[in-house]
Design goal:
Strand content: 15-25%
Order of helices and strands: EHEHEEEHHHHHHEEEEEEEEEHHH
Number of helices: 11
Bound molecules: flavin-adenine dinucleotide
Distance between the termini: 88 Å
Length: 314
């Protein structure tokens, strides 16, 4: 590694001032799990690392306007174990649980992961399917970017070097919605996906027709991929498993995987179709389970035991 300065600003204002001081030679660092490896490999050679870890107020996870706000500095482990997410959006907590190992999840941050933009990562497909947006703050202002417009190319986003991901906002899902993320892991449990798929399905009031759907895939292109044509095929259709298989076939047209040690391009393309179908089926199961849980009679509060009367023994 080449020598570098290490700064630990305490506020976003100080972060921006440091970035301005060092210009394009500076690099933000959060958990460091991706950046340090890239520095060791000399793929990036910053003269200054600007740590975000002392900046307060960027790691909360809370309900906001009916949706959920996740701070850019929240760790993967915090998302995985967040009581709010486990209750309101277990699919997202589960997605972060699928990332690497506990050691990595304890350090890696939500903002760092998205800015890293490796197309094999787990969270992007789920967040895209959920309709999440990213809040990016620079010295010149704030912009909110839909996540399905955020990834530009292999390890590249539309963020400017001086923009900091301060928050990820996941909107409230409409009634009768279910969500699922599945990851194909034929090698080891802590590996990157060979193929991954996320689906968010919304049914109409009767729960017989698909009102809306969002599908996204990982590890099958230079960025995470939204399968829009497959979504179009499903919207307005009656709920039928055959339709999910057709959507899977359609999704295959949107992907462009590369052959590597996790599988050939042809194999990954086929698995993309299978995983889209399975993700849709799982999202439907999620809707049905939620409906059953809602309809189930609430357990009555336990009756207090009647006090034993004295002297009534027979
Ligand atoms: C052994 C190993 C296994 C892994 N396996 C998986 C896996 O199975 N699935 C998966 O999804 N991921 C996996 N990962 C990747 C992991 O998710 C990323 O390394 C991690 O998310 C990066 O987050 P970080 O906070 O450590 O980022 P850093 O390494 O600190 O930074 C990464 C990049 O983001 C920039 N950055 C950081 N924070 C911000 C911010 N708030 N705003 C703007 N830019 C920022 C940095 O300048 C840098 O360019 C693995 C990583 C390792 C090391």
């Amino acid at each position: 590694m080449i020598p570098f300065e290490y700064r630990t600003p305490k506020s976003l204002k100080e972060v921006h001032a440091t970035l301005q001081e060092f210009g394009s030679d500076a690099k933000l660092i959060a958990g460091g799990t991706a950046l340090v490896i890239m520095m060791k490999q000399r793929l990036v050679r910053p003269t200054c690392l600007v740590s975000l870890r002392s900046v307060r107020g960027l790691n909360g996870i809370e309900m906001k306007n009916g949706g959920i706000s996740i701070g850019g500095l929240a760790t993967h482990r915090a998302v995985e174990t967040s009581p709010v997410l486990r209750r309101r959006l277990p699919m997202l907590a589960e997605t972060y649980h699928h990332v690497a190992t506990l050691r990595v999840r304890n350090m890696a941050t939500v903002g760092g992961g998205l800015a890293h933009a490796d197309p094999n990562q787990d969270p992007p497909p789920s967040l895209i399917a959920l309709g999440a947006t990213v809040k990016a703050i620079s010295a010149n202002g704030t912009r909110v970017i839909p996540l399905d417009e955020f990834f530009k190319d292999y390890y590249e986003t539309i963020l400017n070097p001086d923009e900091i991901i301060s928050e990820v906002i996941v909107p409230k899902l409409p009634p009768n919605s279910g969500a699922a993320y599945i990851k194909f892991l034929p090698r080891t449990a802590d590996d990157y996906a060979t193929v991954s798929a996320a689906a968010v399905l919304t049914l109409d009031k009767t729960r017989k027709t698909i009102a809306d759907v969002r599908i996204a895939l990982g590890s099958v292109g230079v960025t995470p991929i939204r399968a829009r044509a497959a979504e179009d095929l499903l919207r307005g259709q009656p709920v039928k498993t055959e339709a999910f298989a057709e959507a899977g076939e359609k999704a295959k047209e949107a992907v462009d995987p590369v052959s590597d040690f996790r599988g050939s391009a042809a194999y990954k393309k086929d698995m993309a179709g299978v995983f889209v179908r399975r993700a849709l089926e799982k999202a439907l199961t999620d809707i049905r389970q939620q409906a059953r849980a809602k309809a189930a009679p609430k357990p009555k509060p336990a009756k207090k035991k009647a006090a034993k009367k004295k002297g009534t023994r027979r």
